[in-house]
Fold:
Amino acid sequence: MTANPAGVDSVNAEVDLAQTAAHEWSSLVTAAVLGTDRRPPPRPTSGWGSLRHVDDPALELLDRAASVATARRAGVKPSMAPPPVTPAPFDGRPVCPDRAADILGVLLKGTHDILLPEWMALCAASRLQPPRHFAPTLLLRGRRHPGFDLVVRALIGPLAGWLAEAMPELGVPVTPKPANAVIEAYLPPTPPADSGAVVSAIITTFADRSATWAAVAQLRQAVAAIEPRWLPALILELNRVPFHAMTERTRVELIGLAEIRREMVVTLDPAPNPSRGNFDQ
Structure:
């Protein structure tokens, strides 16, 4: 009589258990698809009987399915660990202030997003970097706009290429595509020659009731383009505008836009600048 090598019985038991579990699961799935009223659950394979007796075939099927599912999950062998990801490249630039990050989050959600180009330009000019958790959102915005993608990658820095390679599910290329679109379209608007006159013109549209919601796009552009030092005056004058049903929605929109732009400029560029004025006075 030849003795069995050590461990053979346990290996065979594991194989038998896996095979019977697969067979039991397949039978239960078939019964569930057809319905227990049309096809009662099959007799359980040896070792897979229900631990309690129930008269309802549907409950019996659910009990047996729960047992088989638990056994199958518990018996799954872990797969090989993926290779470790190369650490993200070092970026010595400081991260922008918390309030500037909050404003970026508001802009990326679509509120006053006309200010997004100026936010990025101010951040780059101050040699700051945006919070890293915003990098995927910014890169995703540039997938269909190569010009915007170039501006964003310059702002994010070496993290952009690393993130595109480490997270291929983003669908972002490691290297930027050629910018067929004009990059200037994703830069802040050029200030007008006389921002004070623009402020007066904006207030006049409320006086003659032409500042309806139909004109809000042009008015947003004007508020986003004037020199920042004129923002306090614009906010003051807009708050003095009397209520009118035709223009109130536009007035509230422009006040919110001017206030968040004013805060954005102060937060991202705290150094005194004559062209920006002193907002603290």
In short: Confidence is low (pLDDT under 50) at residues 1-15, 274-281.
